[in-house]
DNA sequence: GCGACAG
DNA sequence: ATCTTGTCGC
């Protein structure tokens, strides 16, 4: 993908927060996805004590969900993990991975929040704005807000509320399994985002794009995350 | 000041 | 995110 916009990620936490407050104004909470033929999932993995992030993007055809392309990129991160500033840790590697992606997915799933974030700019919204693509945040837990427990059946939902405002949706993708927390990333509305998550969740808690990205990220990490580091370090 | 806190 | 095997339940 062509990425026309980017910015420095090597900032202080205070500067990063200021940048988020500026970028949040550019997030679009609506937009018609139109016909979807390609969906992508992005994720990152790393070795516990190291500062090398392995980011991946996996593109799947829709609605059959066949993996059609997988790319990865490794980058030294300038940030530790700080709740609310995840994008500054994984962003550099993710941007490079997207640059290597030949496919043009109509929508991208990110591992984390969209607007359900302290400043309304979780990783899905932040990356969505930089890529100028429809993006959806699919998180395994909440960062801000509260949600009632959805009914036990697959497809049940419960709004994620914050100050009486609906900022996302808890979605049960499998019967009796902990829900995933979906929030708008960019250029898509919550309803379409939830529908797409349910349409791509088949037999597992995580929707297929996210699940495939997870699997590939781990694969890449121990394939290159040991060979490259230990054999090129000396 | 004391907790909470995506990945 | 990562560290880790088996095990209980649908």
SSE map:
Blueprint: H1 13-23, E1 38-46, E2 52-61, E3 67-76, H2 86-100, E4 107-111, H3 123-131, E5 135-139, E6 146-147, E7 157-162, E8 165-171, E9 180-186, H4 190-200, H5 208-224, H6 227-232
Parallel strand pairs: 1-4, 4-5
Antiparallel strand pairs: 1-2, 2-3, 5-9, 6-7, 7-8, 8-9
The structure holds two DNA strands.
Binding site for Mg(2+): 43, 111
Function: DNA repair enzyme involved in the repair of deaminated bases. Selectively cleaves double-stranded DNA at the second phosphodiester bond 3' to a deoxyinosine leaving behind the intact lesion on the nicked DNA.
Cofactor: Mg(2+)
Protein architecture, described:
This protein has 234 residues and is α+β, with helices and mostly antiparallel strands. It has one domain: archaeoglobus fulgidus dsm 4304 fold. It has helices at residues 13-23, 86-100, 123-131, 190-200, 208-224, 227-232, and strands at 38-46, 52-61, 67-76, 107-111, 135-139, 146-147, 157-162, 165-171, 180-186. The radius of gyration is 17 Å and the shape is globular. It starts with 12 loop residues before the first helix and ends with a helix. The model is unreliable at 229-234 (pLDDT under 50). It binds two DNA strands through residues 43-49, 81-84, 86, 89-90, 111-113, 116-118, 122-123, 137, 139-144, 175-176, 181. DNA repair enzyme involved in the repair of deaminated bases. Selectively cleaves double-stranded DNA at the second phosphodiester bond 3' to a deoxyinosine leaving behind the intact lesion on the nicked DNA. Belongs to the endonuclease V family. The record marks 81 as: Interaction with target DNA.
């Amino acid at each position: 993908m062509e990425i026309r916009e980017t910015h420095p990620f090597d900032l202080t936490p205070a500067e990063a927060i200021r940048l988020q407050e500026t970028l949040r104004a550019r997030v679009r909470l609506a937009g018609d996805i139109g016909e979807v033929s390609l969906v992508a999932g992005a994720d990152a993995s790393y070795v516990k004590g190291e500062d090398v992030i392995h980011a991946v993007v996996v593109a799947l055809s829709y609605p059959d969900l066949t993996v059609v392309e997988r790319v990865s990129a490794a980058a030294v991160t300038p940030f530790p993990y700080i709740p609310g500033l995840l994008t500054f840790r994984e962003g550099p590697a993710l941007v490079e991975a997207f640059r290597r992606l030949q496919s043009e997915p109509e929508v991208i799933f990110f591992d984390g929040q969209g607007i359900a974030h302290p400043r309304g700019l979780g990783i899905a919204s932040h990356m969505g704005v930089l890529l100028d693509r429809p993006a959806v945040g699919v998180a395994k837990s909440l960062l801000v807000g509260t949600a009632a427990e959805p009914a036990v059946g697959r497809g049940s939902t419960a709004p994620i509320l914050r100050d009486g405002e609906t900022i996302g949706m808890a979605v049960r993708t499998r019967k009796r399994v902990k829900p995933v927390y979906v929030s708008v990333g960019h250029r898509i509305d919550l309803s379409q985002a939830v529908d797409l998550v349910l349409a791509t969740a088949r037999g597992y808690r995580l929707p297929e794009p996210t699940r495939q990205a997870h699997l590939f990220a781990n694969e890449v990490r121990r394939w290159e995350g040991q060979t490259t580091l230990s054999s090129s370090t000396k």
